[in-house]
Design a protein that fits this description.
The protein is 35% helix and 21% strand. The chain folds into 3 domains: 116 residues, Rossmann fold, CATH 3.40.50.12160; 245 residues, tm_1862 like domain (pyruvate-formate lyase- activating enzyme, Alpha-Beta Horseshoe); 60 residues, Beta Barrel (OB fold (Dihydrolipoamide Acetyltransferase, E2P)). It has 14 helices and 19 strands. Bound molecules: 5'-deoxyadenosine and iron/sulfur cluster. The site of 5'-deoxyadenosine has 12 residues, from strand 13.
Length: 434
């Protein structure tokens, strides 16, 4: 979502004459768009700010002082603390106020100290954003929902991103049509808890995510749809049906389970146990038999025992996740779990290593099992080797192939010829190769 937000910040700043550049050196303004989800991500902000400090006092002959801004969830959570630790920062603003950036930039240009805007404004920021630019790629992110009311006991999101909000369906459809008209072939719908989407329908009533996906699939040019990130307990019948009925919906789903232990899941305030999660996966696989699943896991949550952790490993094997992200529990300020007695760090390190070894072996087995299959691949960039393009399979695996440059931005059927730890190799099938 930070990638999407950054692109929208660029849209907001375009009328002021700003265009994105590839690096900090030479830029007139530098915005760090930050993440507060784990301590490591938050700490990176301060080390990055330290590095940027030297760029601040650019001589007038070279354009004058550089504006340095901190955006995103660290800005939201730490606000004035950032200005205390890095007094050369000009602007601090949260994820819900970036539509006001032009005003903040104007204020930063005047005397009177730094600008701090971490409110949760009553007007949704989406109403204050200009038309999006489609970017360079054939794949676009589209935020449909933001914020979260679930309050998992480890998570800062409800505090930094605020309460749940769904954009009206008409706005989402207009943005999707805009991307399709600009040549985008794949749209990934975004939300902290995207499958709780309940946006106002174009003719009244409410649309859930299943309905929204079905309507986006009708837009000419949209060949692929994905959505992330979902909360298991919010997976409703119409969304499961969309996996059966909507061919454009890719057979790959990121559905975080966090832990395989009911005890830990309850302590996390997740509103499902292991059995509910397994039943849900059965239903999804009945709807879409070739569905591959990805997940997030936290190890070393307060109170997690060896037996709890073994249940996580069992869950990974039972479900057969083909990919996953896993993290050591990181206590976040203001969250209930941070106040509980903590698991020691070495135990977290050992559990993370064991989990990642299992996940890696499953990912490799899945990739190797793809050899011989024919898959649609959306080519979205050049490879490292001359004459090579890289694209994405329906399951999000990067696929390398020696193909003509003219195929960039197209979806081609490829026969998979190699399966590796993190990627595949493929070649055009007979008819397309001829
Ligand atoms: N510590 C470790 N991992 C966390 N996540 C969220 N909060 C924390 C935390 N305090 C992980 C969860 C979530 C993903 C986005 O980040 O697994 O699904
Ligand atoms: Fe955080 Fe997701 Fe739980 Fe919401 S549902 S509190 S975003 S982990």
């Amino acid at each position: 979502m930070n990638v999407y937000d950054s692109a929208r910040m660029a849209d907001v700043l375009a009328p002021l004459g700003y265009t994105p550049v590839d690096g900090a050196a030479g830029a007139d303004m530098i915005i760090l768009n930050t993440c507060h989800i784990r301590e490591k991500a938050a700490e990176k902000v301060y080390s990055e700010l330290g590095r940027l400090k030297g760029l601040k006092d650019r001589p007038v002959a070279e354009g004058g002082p550089v504006i340095i801004a901190v955006a995103g969830c660290v800005a939201q959570a730490e606000g004035a603390e950032i200005l205390r630790r890095a007094p050369y920062v000009d602007i601090v603003f949260g994820p819900q106020t970036y539509h006001r950036l032009p005003e903040m930039v104007a204020r930063a240009g005047r005397a009177g100290g730094a600008v701090l805007d971490t409110e949760f404004p009553p007007e949704p920021k989406f109403d204050g954003l200009p038309e999006p630019t489609a970017g360079k790629g054939r794949s676009a992110f589209l935020t449909v929902q933001e914020g979260c009311d679930k309050f998992c006991t480890f998570c800062v999101v409800p505090y930094t991103r605020g309460a749940e909000y769904s954009r009206p369906a008409a706005d989402v459809l207009a943005e999707a049509r805009h991307y399709a008209a600009a040549g985008v072939r794949e749209i990934t719908l975004l939300g902290q808890n995207v499958n709780c989407y309940h946006g106002e329908g174009p003719r009244g009533g409410e649309w859930g995510l299943g309905r929204l996906i079905a309507e986006i699939a009708e837009i000419v040019g949209v060949d692929r749809i994905r959505y992330t990130t979902s909360y298991p307990a919010d997976m409703d019948g119409s969304l499961i049906a969309a996996h059966r009925d909507v061919a454009e919906l890719m057979p790959f789903l990121h559905l975080p389970v966090q832990s395989g232990s009911d005890r830990v899941l309850a302590a996390m305030n997740r509103r499902h146990g292991g059995a509910e999660y397994r039943r849900l996966v059965d239903k999804l696989r009945k709807a879409r038999p070739d569905l591959a699943l990805s997940s997030d896991f936290i190890v070393g949550f307060p109170g997690e025992t060896d037996a709890d952790f073994r249940q996580t490993l069992e869950m990974v094997e039972d479900i057969g996740f083909t990919q996953a992200y896993s993290f050591k529990y990181s206590p976040r300020p203001g969250t209930p779990a941070s106040l509980e007695p903590q698991v020691d760090d070495q135990t977290k390190i050992d559990r993370l290593a064991a989990l990642q070894e299992l996940l890696d072996s499953q990912q490799r087995a899945f990739n190797e099992g793809c050899v011989g299959r024919v898959m649609g691949v959306l080519f979205d960039c050049r490879g490292r080797v001359p004459g090579q393009l890289v694209g994405r399979s329906p399951y999000m695996q990067p696929v390398h192939a020696q193909v003509a440059e003219s195929l960039l931005g197209t979806i081609q059927p490829l026969r998979i010829t190699g399966g590796f730890a993190n990627s595949l190799a493929g070649a055009l099938t007979g008819s397309a190769a001829a």
